[in-house]
């Protein structure tokens, strides 16, 4: 059965309308934290299965057009392309924090379109890792929110040689739906009882499409009628929403240029994402500039760093210039943070109808009450190269935070010696002595096995400070180059 062409987030369509749908780009999948993880999947095959027969139907084309996310000819061509290059670590390998688990290179819109469902891989990987480690399984390890979720758990159990444990999978669809509904009720209540100020952004926080459908049905029951999931918005009679992600700004290379493109290439009200480079020094100042060029309705969205301070700074700067865009608050948002933002809104006297809240994990994954969520490992699928140009996200977190890796990243794994366990290198870069290239190399497993470094428990015995992967000379040079270009601008 083919996947719906609408089975992604709405903002993917918005960015393609204001982008370059057929340009070849590289995205990579990685975990920012969470420690070593075991890979139980043939990831290349799984990704290719997602795009089999991928072509919008006449009804899907019309739905997208009616809601402002219409396919251009280039977008349709991109989805029909089978020209994908996938470079993945092999099934049975383990990976470290921030290492590229796999990369996909192909037409921009197609590769970007994959993101929400690609992020679902985090659950089977985390479950398989827990089964591989010599440690007791946590409580509720085998609780499923829906039959599709249960089937994923059973598949991982079988793959891990624990077939007999499949009988212990507990299905609690109704309880999950009720917990979601109670959560959404409290969020709406915190928004002065106005469900129009709350929308759902949890497709990427789900385990599967069926689970997300249950969560959205609960949202609908509480009056929340907007979601980023285009496919389920159509199916459930909800409104699709979404406008900009970091990849759009990375693609254009600068905040102001990216904002102008979204403003001038789409008829819908644009939402400007502030933190791709730096919220204070670039994002907010660029918003002021594009609003000064010509008056237009717009919204601004925060994503990383201390968003409370950023919010107050933005309110002050915007008020000085006489601008009053809507504030869109998402990223790790929960009820406590929402209440604090409502207090700040009252302090700044920002209109209630110009401050809205998007919830993902709070609505979708937290009510699962199981340990293995996207947030636990910081699963991401990030743009690393557009055309021949390396790209990266900087953000406003301390240390590496949400910083991404540019270029076409691969993993080198140590097989002997005292060097770092992993090196985040670039495709075609010379492999150092005592290392083997793990990415796109199934034969690497035999080398690791012969050198007695394939076992995950053995990797966990390495001192924690030495488990982190380091950047290769080529990757370090790309980071310096992209960072230098940003500072120069």
Description of the molecule:
Helix 12 packs across helix 13, helix 13 packs parallel to helix 14 (279-293) and helix 15 packs parallel to helix 16 (335-348). The mean pLDDT is 93. The protein is α/β, with parallel strands linked by helices. It has a domain at 175-368: Aldolase class I (TIM Barrel, Alpha-Beta Barrel), CATH 3.20.20. The relative contact order is 0.14. It is globular and about 65 Å long. Strand 15 (379-386) and strand 16 form a beta hairpin.
Distance between the termini: 48 Å
**CATH topology description of one domain:** TIM Barrel
Give the count of helical stretches.
21
CATH superfamily placement of one domain: Aldolase class I
Q: What class, by secondary structure content?
A: alpha/beta
Question: What general outline do the C-alpha atoms trace?
Answer: globular
Number of strands: 20
**Main CATH class of one domain:** Alpha Beta
On the 0 to 100 scale, the average pLDDT is 93
Most strands sheet? 5 strands, antiparallel
* Proportion of strand residues: 15-25%
Instruction: Kindly report the spatial arrangement of strands forming the biggest sheet.
Output: 3-5-1-15-16
Q: What characteristics describe this protein?
A:
globular; single chain; 5-stranded parallel beta sheet; TIM Barrel; 489 residues; alpha/beta
Q: Which helices and strands appear, and what pairs or packs with what?
A:
Elements lengths: L9 H8 L6 E8 L5 E2 L4 H8 L7 H9 L6 H8 L4 E4 L5 E2 L6 E6 H6 L1 H5 L2 H11 L10 E2 L2 H13 L10 E2 L1 H18 L7 E3 L8 H13 L4 E2 L2 H7 L2 E2 L5 H7 L2 H11 L5 E3 L5 H15 L5 E4 L4 H14 L5 E4 L5 H14 L6 E5 L1 H4 L9 H4 L1 E8 L2 E2 L18 E6 L7 E5 L8 E3 L6 H7 L5 H5 L9 E2 L1 H16 L1
Parallel strand pairs: 6-7, 8-14, 9-10, 11-12, 12-13, 13-14, 18-20
Antiparallel strand pairs: 1-5, 1-15, 2-4, 3-5, 15-16, 17-18, 17-19
């Amino acid at each position: 059965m083919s996947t719906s062409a609408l089975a992604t987030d709405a903002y993917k369509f918005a960015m393609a309308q204001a982008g370059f749908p057929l340009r070849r780009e590289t995205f990579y999948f990685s975990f920012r934290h969470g420690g070593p993880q075991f890979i139980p999947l043939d990831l290349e095959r799984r990704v290719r299965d997602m795009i089999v027969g991928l072509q919008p139907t006449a009804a899907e084309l019309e739905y997208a057009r009616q809601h402002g996310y219409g396919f251009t000819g280039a977008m349709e061509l991109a989805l029909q392309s089978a020209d994908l290059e996938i470079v993945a670590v092999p099934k049975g390998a383990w990976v470290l924090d921030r290492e590229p688990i796999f990369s996909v290179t192909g037409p921009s819109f197609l590769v970007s379109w994959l993101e929400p469902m690609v992020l679902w891989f985090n659950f089977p990987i985390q479950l398989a890792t827990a089964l591989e480690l010599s440690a007791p399984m946590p409580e509720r390890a085998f609780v499923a929110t829906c039959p599709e979720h249960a089937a994923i758990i059973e598949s991982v159990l079988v793959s891990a040689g624990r077939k007999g444990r499949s009988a212990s999978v507990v299905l609690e669809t109704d309880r999950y739906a009720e917990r979601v509904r109670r959560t959404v009720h409290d969020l709406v209540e915190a928004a002065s009882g106005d469900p129009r100020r709350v929308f759902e952004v949890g497709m990427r926080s789900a385990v599967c499409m069926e689970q997300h459908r249950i969560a959205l049905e609960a949202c609908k029951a509480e009056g929340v009628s907007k979601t980023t999931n285009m496919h389920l918005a159509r199916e459930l009679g909800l409104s699709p929403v979404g406008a900009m992600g970091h990849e759009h700004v990375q693609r254009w290379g600068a905040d102001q240029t990216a904002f102008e493109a979204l403003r001038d290439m789409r008829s819908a009200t644009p939402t400007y994402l502030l933190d791709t480079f730096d919220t204070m020094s670039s994002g907010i100042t660029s918003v002021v500039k594009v609003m000064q060029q010509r008056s237009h309705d717009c919204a601004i969205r925060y994503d990383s760093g201390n968003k409370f301070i950023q919010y107050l700074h933005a309110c002050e700067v915007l008020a000085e210039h006489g601008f009053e865009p809507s504030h869109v608050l998402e990223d790790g948002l929960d009820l406590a943070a929402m209440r604090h933002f409502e207090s700040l809104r009252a302090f700044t006297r920002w209109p209630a109808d110009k401050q809205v809240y998007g919830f993902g994990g709070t609505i979708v994954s937290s009510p699962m009450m199981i340990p293995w969520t996207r947030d636990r490992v910081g699963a991401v699928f990030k743009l690393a190269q557009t055309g021949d140009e390396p790209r990266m996200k900087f953000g406003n977190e301390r240390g590496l935070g949400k910083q991404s890796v540019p270029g076409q990243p691969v993993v080198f794994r140590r097989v002997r010696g005292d060097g770092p366990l992993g090196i985040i290198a670039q495709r075609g870069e010379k492999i150092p002595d005592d290392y083997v290239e793990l990415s796109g190399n199934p034969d690497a497993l035999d080398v690791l096995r012969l050198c007695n470094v394939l076992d995950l428990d053995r990797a966990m015995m390495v001192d924690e400070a030495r488990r982190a992967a380091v950047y290769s000379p080529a990757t370090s040079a790309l980071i310096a180059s992209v960072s230098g270009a940003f500072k120069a601008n």
